[in-house]
Structures are given as C-alpha cells and as structure tokens.
Amino acid sequence: MRNDHLMATLTKRDWLLILLAYQGAPHGLDPVRVQQALFLFAETGGAPHAARYSFDPGPYGPMSAHVYRDLDELVQAGLLKSREQPPRQWHIYTATAQGRAIAGSYLGNLLRGDRDSAQILFDIKQRVASYTFAELLERIRNHHPEAVARSVFTAARETASTTTSSIQQ
C-alpha cells in the first residue's frame, strides 16, 4: 500500500479499492463479481495499462489470483472488510471508512484520463452489482467466450444443450 495517497499514478490495488468503495452494492461484492468487474474494466479499455490484472479462464469466469492477494492485503491493511456469506464459503467485501476515505482522496486527485477510467469503473460496478450471478456470466460469455471456457456454467449449459438436442432428434 502506498503511503502517498496523492500520487497521480494509481496501482491495480488502488483501483480495486476504488471499485469496492464506490456506491452501488450496499452489502458488498463477492469475489466473482470483483473479478468480473476488474476483467471488464481491463477488457473495455477503461483501465489504465498499469491497472490491468492478468486474467485466465476459471471455474466462475475470468480469474486472477493476484486479485485475491490484493483483496487479502487490503483487508489486512484495514481498508476493506470481509465477511463470510452463508451458505457459500466465500466472502463479501466492502470498503471500511478508512478505505472509503483513501479511495476518495485518490478520486479527488485524478488526472483527466484517469477520471474517465474512474467513471467507467463506476458504471461497471453498477452493472455487475445489478446482475444475477448467471446473468453476469452469460453477458461475459456472450462478449468474451474465451474468458469463460472453463466455467462450470458453460460446461453445464453445453451439457444441457447436448441433452436437449439428443431428445429432439
């Protein structure tokens, strides 16, 4: 975590903090939505080059192990809090008051191009938070099929399609 919150160039972790500090998901975001939001941020061209995580196809869509490390570090730094989400075994992430204050200082000191990126990230969070889990993965599959090649939902859909086509013959 940087000590100087007024630097012009934001890191990946800074953008992650901004994502979670933005309004739009009052109960927080699960790791899949965090991953998908950051993937879309990079894929839409909204993310500055230095703020782009590298993603691979994962069981729930595009995935970056580095995002999980950054989430853990932000929790340890007291900028995010996580709580377990029953019945699932994953956590929901929200920004703490300190995290929101730091994210606000980042946003207040952005250069013009980064202000555009911040608006794109805000819009992505609103969309990602509004979709059901299945809708989110379906939208990503429609626009980035390579990113969901290993998704459990893609495999289930293909199995259902094969079963349906077998019945119709």
SSE diagram, text form:
Layout: H1 12-21, H2 31-43, E1 56-58, E2 61-63, H3 65-76, E3 80-84, E4 91-95, H4 97-108, H5 112-130, H6 133-143, H7 152-168
Antiparallel strand pairs: 1-2, 3-4
Distance between the termini: 59 Å
Q: Which range does the strand content fall in?
A: 5-15%
Count of helix runs: 7
Total strand segments = 4
Mean pLDDT across every amino acid position: 83
Detailed description of the structure:
The protein is built from 7 helices and 4 strands, in the order H-H-E-E-H-E-E-H-H-H-H. A two-stranded antiparallel sheet has the order 1-2. A two-stranded antiparallel ribbon has the order 3-4. The chain has one domain (12-168): Arc Repressor Mutant, subunit A, CATH 1.10.10. A hairpin with a 6-residue loop joins strand 3 and strand 4 (91-95). The protein is mainly alpha-helical. The protein has helices at residues 12-21, 31-43, 65-76, 97-108, 112-130, 133-143, 152-168; strands spanning 56-58, 61-63, 80-84, 91-95.
